[in-house]
Amino acid sequence: MSTVGQPERATQDRVIALFRDELGYRYLGDWTDRVGNSNIDEGLVSAWLNKSGYTPARIAVALHKLWTEAGNHNRTLYGNNQAVYKLLRYSVPVKIEAGKVTETVHLIDWKRPEQNDFAIAEEVTLKGNYERRPDAVIYVNGIAIGTLELKNSRVSIGDSIRQSLSNQRPEFNAWFYSTVQFVFAGNDSEGLKYDTTETPEKYFPKWTEDEADDNRFKLDKYLLKICDKRRLIELRHDFVLFDGGASRSGLRRPSGMCS
Length: 259
Known about the structure:
six-stranded mixed sheet, two-stranded antiparallel sheet, single chain, alpha+beta, 7 helices
């Protein structure tokens, strides 16, 4: 299937439709002109936690702790990302009143992936010293966990990776990536590359799976695999690693699924 010369906009439209119609994500819209775009959308987070049975008081405390860890100015992006991951992975300890038992608020339902709210927004304008706009952002329960940069088939995936890496620099929008664990870059001719926040370009592997299947674009095929709701929750829960130092996080490679 040839896509040489297809405009980037056409690729993006097709990918958004794939997330909405085939993967079953909610489409949040084009957020180019939306005010207050953030990696933690309080309205979406609160709505999901309320639906999960948490009281407004517990939701308020959990959100405060999430914001505090995500935006700690005394840590690096790596440190904030790791702190947020711990809250997502192990839940948020919540104490409403002194003398009361500490409870837990789970920001992600790890055991029942289908109970989470998977959503995607496109053209998400990020305000900062310099304005940037990721092609698409994946939200789970109102928390940004992935970004996607797309190029047409004439432009290398490497350009998408470098664009994402520049977005993560302090002078641009590093704050947004404190919750982001998946950085995706792709086009129709090369397929899909991925890794985590602050990973150097040379470490981004290509996702490869079911190579004999050439019935559709590589990009679409691999996004359907890696962004399947159960697969994405499994990857975030079981395959995200921090190196124990202060350099970078990474993804442990699922056997036979990447190169």
